[in-house]
Amino acid sequence: MTRPLCSFVSRLGFVMLTAAIALLLNLAHPLPAAAYSVDAPTVLITGSNRGIGLELARQYAAKNWNVIATCRHPETAKALKAIASAYADVEIEKLDVTDHAAIDALSEKYKDMPIDLLINNAGITGGRENQQFGHLHYDAFFKVMDVNVVGPLKMAEAFIDQVAASDQKKIVNITSSEGSLSTIHGARNYFYRPSKAALNMVMLNLSREVAPRGVIIGLINPGPVATDMMKGVNMPLLTPQESVSGVITVIDSLTPEKSGKFLQYDGKELTW
Amino acid sequence: MRVVVRALALACFFLLPGMGTPPVEGGHTVLITGSNRGIGLEFARQYAARGWRVIATCRHPEKAVNLQAIAAANPQVIIEKLDVTDLGAIDALAHKYRDTAIDVLLNNAGISGGLNNQRFGHINYATFHDVYAVNVVGPLKMAEAFQTQVAASDLKKIITISSTAGSIANSTGLLYIYRSSKTAVNMAMRNLANELQAKGIIVGLIAPGPTNADVVKGRVPLGKPEDRVKVMIDVIDRFTLDMSGSFVAYDGKVLPW
Questions:
Q1: Is B42 in contact with B67 (CB distance < 8 Å)?
Q2: Whole-prediction pTM value?
């Protein structure tokens, strides 16, 4: 063979070899599938199929953020799928926050993606029928704790590096005024109230632990909102749109000085 | 003659000044969980010394030599085997004592979970369950199971031993699981106080004192258990219905949530 041809063949071979290796590497560690805008911030939201989580996904998508919207059953999350269809940078991921292996796997999948904002929104009430004193159903207690306290803590553990690697470095937890020991009235929600108080304690502690890394922890009460969770509750309710607009305003205002404070959708600070 | 002696005794203790809160005739009953060691053991000892009937529960009575010694010296002390995470066992014990008025239900049993299970980045979630089962479910289930017996008593008190570590406002240090479990039981009992107010049942939360996890200026002497418990028993004596739902330190000082 002539020397130019040799050189061409060897270069082609080299290129093909490199391409093969790149392909194999990509198969081994596939990048997240959806379109991802490098210039936009990224938010990961749990429990985004309905209620406050869905509205958070909608409003952040409309702000042109990259949205990683998780829920337990993407296949039936029609409203969420509609948002994902309407916006390029929305990815739906299947996740049950009580499944720690799944949390670890999701974190692994996104290990190279800086996450500006992790919103621990997924939460359950435990059911009124399980929380009547004299007839408390304690298996529901553990379920409530697993979703409302353990879930957010595990998510924070699993995604702390991605958050710390981002510009905004925020972990926001949707809490509740039902978790305020100083202001609760009446006797109800024997599991739900302690779960939100425990969440507040855990996240205040965390705010101190992660401060050196510049990570900001938010605890935001969204107010009483007209969602499935509040069905049957007889009181004036906010629309999800009103509540979430407020929540996002508070999130935007979060600074290291405000980390760990117990805040509300209208900017008010609550007492423990 | 017996009537005269009794009348004289009664007259004496009404007339004698500086008696403090006089023990009511007929004696009272206290049920204590986790009474084999530590604060629980000391509560058993001191309530027995006051002449109260003490139902002293623990997981392993056969190993509780110090508690056994107290029971041997005081016939009104009864040791009962109980693991507060065993809901069926709680129901069985409540059934056994269904006709006993219980003046003070003392939810003392508690566990820390261990420092190494609570480091961020390596949190042991099985430990989370274990700690919450003892520290939160235990007291709540005990309150449910024994509410009738407490309601039937003179003093009607459900007291849970909490911790300054459960105060969110004073939160320093880590121990994610232990601290949040004490916050959770504080909330559960705050809730319960509201529930039982109409029945005249007093629900209290007492923190025995500063722990190593608390940041305090200088060295705070922790005090001997016997001194600490003496003060706490006095606080329990003075816990009234309008204080129900309060979170206080061993000396009765109100703690922030």
A1: no
A2: 0.88
Cβ <8 Å between B120 and A204: no
pLDDT tens-digit readout, A120-135: 999 999 999 999 999 9
Stretch A254-259: mean pLDDT, rounded? 98
Phi and psi at A225, nearest 5°, equal -120, 145
> Measuring CA to CA, which residue among B136, B213, B119, B162 is closest to residue A206?
B119
Interface residue B88 vs chain A (CB under 8 A): no
Pull the structure tokens for residue A77. 């999350």
Nearest to A45 by CA among A97, A2, A87, A86: A97
ipTM: 0.87
The dihedral sign for the CA sequence B110, B115, B121, B123: negative
A124 C-beta neighbours (distance < 10 Å), count:
18
Phi, psi (degrees; rounded to nearest 5) at A212 = -60, -25
> Within its chain, how far is the Cα of A212 from the centroid?
22
Name the DSSP class of A87: -
Residue identified by tokens 């219980």 is: B102
| Beta carbons of B233 and B227 less than 8 angstroms apart | no
Q: A140-191 pLDDT, tens per residue?
A: 999 999 999 999 999 999 999 999 999 999 999 999 999 999 999 999 999 9
H or E element at residue A44: strand A42-45
- Helix, strand, or coil (residue B210): coil
**CATH architecture for residues B2-249:** 3-Layer(aba) Sandwich (3.40)
Count other C-beta atoms under 10 Å from residue B170's C-beta: 15
The structure tokens 């050189």 sit at A7
Q: Facing residues of A43 across strands?
A: A67, A117
Does residue A157 belong to the interface with chain B, where contact is any CB pair within 8 Å? yes
Q: What are phi and psi of A92, to 5 degrees?
A: -95, 130
Q: Tell me the sheet residues that pair with A67.
A: A43, A90
Other CB atoms within 10 Å distance of the CB of residue A162 = 20
Among A residues 83-122, those touching chain B with beta carbons less than 8 Å apart: 100
- Cα(first)–Cα(last) distance of chain A, in Å? 82
Provide the CB-side half-sphere exposure for A153 (13 A, CA): 31
Report which listed range, A34-38, A228-232, B186-190, is most confident. Answer: B186-190
Whole-angstrom distance, CA of residue A223 vs CA of residue A219: 12
State which amino acid sits at residue B61. Answer: P
Partner residues linked to B203 by β-bridges: B158
Residue position matching structure tokens 């199929």: A49
Closest residue to A205, CB basis, from B171, B195, B257: B171
How close A138 comes to chain B (CA, Å)? 7
DSSP class of residue B133 equals I
Helix (H) or strand (E) holding B79: strand B77-81
Report residue A210: phi and psi, to 5°.
Answer: -95, -5
3-class DSSP state of A177 = helix
* Cα dihedral A12, A13, A17, A20 sign: positive
